[in-house]
Amino acid sequence: MDSYNVGNENALQHGGERAVKALSAGTSLVGMAHQLQLEVHDEIERDGLLAVMRVEAERYLAVARLFFGLVLGAESLDDVDRFARRFGWLSSKAWNMLERLRELEGDPNAIDYEDIVKELDL
């Protein structure tokens, strides 16, 4: 996306932290985060929600695979632990999004988590 100001790492870092605080507080995004929100809105309007969800799931899965490669090449147990935690979180997010997409698209093979919970009697 061309709205990222490549090379301005300080602004990206602080813009991101400010955006997280705005999300937590329920306030409006400002600056770069607001610009990206507008871009996301335009993408959803243009391509549809499911298409945007699919791209995001693919991105999470791609980054998860990067971290899996780091796990395999890690030289210390601390690195293995750190990279494995990132891999687990990212891959879990990706597969949850993909499963949700299957449900929204009406896939008859989609997993019904409510039925699983009922079967487990939780």
Structure characterization notes:
The chain has 122 residues and is mainly alpha-helical. It has two domains: 1-47, no CATH class; 48-122. The chain is built from five helices and no strands. It has helices spanning 9-25, 31-47, 49-73, 77-104, 113-120. The longest helix has 28 residues, at 77-104. The radius of gyration is 18 Å and the shape is extended.
Supply the helix-strand structural class. mainly alpha
Overall, the morphology is extended
Unreliable stretches, pLDDT < 50, 5 or more residues?
none
Give a count of the beta strands, DSSP E runs of length 2 or more: 0
Range of helix content: over 70%
Which oligomeric state applies?
single chain
Distance from first to last alpha carbon: 44 Å
Task: State the order of secondary-structure elements, H for helix, E for strand.
Answer: HHHHH
* Share in β-strands: under 5%
The overall number of domains is 2
Mean pLDDT: 83
Largest sheet, strands/sense/barrel: none
* Count of DSSP-assigned helices: 5
How would you briefly describe this protein structure?
The chain is 78% helix and 0% strand. By secondary structure, the protein is mainly alpha-helical. The mean pLDDT is 83.
List keywords for this structure.
single chain, 122 residues, 2 domains, mainly alpha, extended
List the SSEs and their pairings.
Layout: H1 9-25, H2 31-47, H3 49-73, H4 77-104, H5 113-120
Helix pairs in contact: 2-3, 3-4
